[in-house]
Amino acid sequence: MVLIASRIRSATKGVRSVDAAGGRVMAVTGSRVLGGRYVLAEVLGTGGMATVWRAHDQVLGREVAVKVLSQQFAADPGFADRFEREARHAASVSHPRLVTVFDSGIDRGTPFLVMELVTGRTLRQVLDDAGPLPAGQAVAIAAGVCEGLEAAHAAGLVHRDIKPVNIMLAGGEVKILDFGIARADGTAARTATGTVLGTPAYLSPEQAAGHPAGPASDLYSLGCVLFEMLTGSPPFTAESQLALAYRQVYDDPGPPSARRPGLPASLDQLTARLLAKAPAARPASAAAARAGPLAVPAQGGTALPPATPARTQGSRQRLRRPETLLTAALTAALAALVAVLLAGPGSTRPAGPAPAAAGTTARTHAATRPATPTRTHAATRPAASTPAPAATRPAASTRAPVSRPPESAAPTRTPAQTATAPALPPTATAAAALVGNLQAGVADGQVTQQAGQDLFSHLQPLLFGPPGPGAQQTQKQFTQLVQAYDKHQSQGQITGKAATTVPKAIAALGAALGVH
């Protein structure tokens, strides 16, 4: 049986370096010293929330990676405090599968995090270069991620953003990167209710719906990653981030073998459990997931590489691709979201349309029933009163539990099979259009982040609220959205073209819901 380490090396063999692939890191002239000891040298990558630098620790004489929080977040005292708390918590966890956090601090009002500098390839780079992986390599990588999650979850940390760009393959090792949006279990009260951090293509249904993330959320995200390693594309793709998150909540991607025939049935069963809509239906823990099909036997009795070997501090470091870290339209409190999502859409990398949901039944959202008497509102009243078609949400199907472990030999690669993604119901389509108008408004300086945050908080229950709320409740929620728009527009927080496009989008949403 092939060692996990050798399978990972095989997965990364021949993959071009960051520079050779055209991802030249940006050299920075001059230098800045953080905390009196960390000399920033060059930008390794940027995201919506922070910039990661390669730096030199003058005290210990070593190269490190320093994550510097973006000014828009550093200016928020609550967010900056949470960033610092989570840095301290992450620093308390040490494991070969987790990137080590060395230090954290605040320099001239800017929070920063100091981490080990790792040389290797991200899983994102491997998949972009090589496409679907042999089943054995995919299993080996997923098992390594599970081992890291075991340690993090045992320490009370939830990552909340497991995705290929945050999984490093270095010298036969798997390492989980970027606990920068991780949170400590039990600190939810310190975070704005409903705040969702994550990337839509790998976002759990509960996160998309604005509920707290837990260890099971990381397992769902791992299921999305495993699905992509096996098929070459994530479980779901869509034209917008909101539509993508909507599919995470309501659609069934079908088994990986439907896109890549020949995969072991046990991997279909494992991904079905990892991608269960209800957290309680997923494996009880990362350890439980790893004990099944991910428990790959190894020569010499060592399932994973031994304790962390010396890591090479080379010049080829990961280039963090800008990806959306927050799903703005889905949360009840989206301060961080507005600053990221509304600043511009991130990379959701649609690698091809996902197949239509299989084995699902449609249920009608009560929001589409006739509403209470119309409330007059000149700015947002639809031009036509024609009832919108009923918005439906497919219910998740029940799939078989995990049985036997996967076959040791990887099946012959088969091109991923795709089908046209199912059309979104009118409510979700209208909500996505509203998000697009708010994105454009923020980008043009016509919608303030505060206004965007508040409108999103009113949109969330309309789109992801419990089924069957009744027409009266739906009318009430929509009226609150309209009133929120009125308030922000009257206060000058929505101006210019946005003062026309946003109310029109709200009106279209009302028409889709069957309310006014």
TrEMBL record:
UniProt feature, compositional bias: Low complexity: 348-401, 409-421
Pfam families: Pkinase
Top-rank lineage group of the source organism: Bacteria
InterPro entries: Kinase-like_dom_sf (IPR011009), Prot_kinase_dom (IPR000719), Protein_kinase_ATP_BS (IPR017441), Ser/Thr_kinase_AS (IPR008271)
Gene3D superfamilies in the record: Phosphorylase Kinase, domain 1 (3.30.200.20), Transferase(Phosphotransferase) domain 1 (1.10.510.10)
Ranges where the record places region Disordered: 297-320, 348-421
Keyword ATP-binding: yes
Binding-site list for ATP: K67
Key words of the record: ATP-binding, Kinase, Nucleotide-binding, Serine/threonine-protein kinase, Transferase
Catalysis performed (reactions): L-threonyl-[protein] + ATP = O-phospho-L-threonyl-[protein] + ADP + H(+); L-seryl-[protein] + ATP = O-phospho-L-seryl-[protein] + ADP + H(+)
Residue span(s) of domain Protein kinase: 38-295
GO MF term list: ATP binding; protein serine/threonine kinase activity
Keyword Nucleotide-binding: yes
CDD domains, alphabetized: STKc_PknB_like (cd14014)
GO biological process, one term: negative regulation of fatty acid biosynthetic process
EC number of this enzyme: 2.7.11.1
PANTHER family referenced in this protein's UniProt entry, alphabetically: MITOGEN-ACTIVATED PROTEIN KINASE KINASE KINASE 20-RELATED (PTHR43289), SERINE_THREONINE-PROTEIN KINASE NEKL-3 (PTHR43289:SF6)
This protein's name: non-specific serine/threonine protein kinase
Source organism of the structure: Trebonia kvetii
